[in-house]
Every structure is written in C-alpha cells, then in structure tokens.
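Here is the promised in-class demo. Please do not try to memorize the tokens; focus on the logic of going from shape to residues.
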C-alpha cells in the first residue's frame, strides 16, 4: 500500500482544478471564435495545458490572461485545425 502525504494530495487536487480551468478556457476560446465546442474539445490535451499553467504561473499576471495566452499558444504550436 502506497503512502501518500498531504502535499501530494494537495498537488493532485490542484491539478484537477487546473484541468477544469483548462476545459473552461478552451471552451471560451472556441466560443469566442464561433467554433463548435463539442466537435473540437478533443483536440486539446487538458493535462498538458494544466501542467503548462502550473510551471509558468506568474502571480503578478491575472490567471485569466495567463490561460488565454496558454490556450492561444497551444493552438499555434500544435497547428490545430477546427471543424464547425
């Protein structure tokens, strides 16, 4: 039986919250561009977006601005093409 400390539990819960944030910000990105959300969400790796947010988080910049930048960069870097 693996022993999990409180810090690890905190990181796991935090990651889940960041994945949920990623999902919301991707949906917002798509909606703002009139792109069908249901048909295109699968193109995004929410765990990778959450990890990027965690690694690059800057407390002097609004989280929403950071997410917008992360999602836009992910689209550009992965050369995503959307269907409507």
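The designed amino acids, position by position:
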């Amino acid at each position: 039986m693996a022993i999990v400390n409180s810090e690890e539990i905190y990181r796991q819960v935090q990651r889940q919250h960041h994945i949920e944030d990623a999902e919301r910000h991707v949906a917002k990105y798509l909606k703002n561009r009139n792109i069908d959300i249901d048909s295109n969400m699968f193109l995004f790796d929410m765990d990778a977006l959450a990890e990027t947010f965690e690694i690059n988080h800057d407390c002097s910049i609004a989280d929403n601005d950071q997410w917008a930048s992360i999602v836009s960069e992910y689209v550009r870097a992965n050369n995503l093409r959307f269907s409507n």
